[in-house]
């Protein structure tokens, strides 16, 4: 590229993070920190566009199970592609789900690792605890 993002790769696009209003104009430090960490307030809050949330949204749009067609507006120097307004509500619901799954995966991995590390001699197997509402495993010795 010779204009705009000089020497940037034009084939993959450029994702620009727009800060939430509360992150830079919050009334106190706690509000600004919560916004920076992606904690939302209210039932109608949109998903947080922090680094992880933005990466999840980009993957959903590009390579998700249901491709999302983008509407592009082209200027002489910039091309901006966005999700159409009619698709946004369905996409937002899926975005929340993917964020929840991405936050649950490390907890699941940690619980499984803790289960295997709980025995002195090793061996055996770890089985999902079906009564738990969070990732939990219990160790079972295999004869």
TrEMBL record:
Which superkingdom, per the lineage?
Bacteria
Q: What is this protein called?
A: Uncharacterized protein
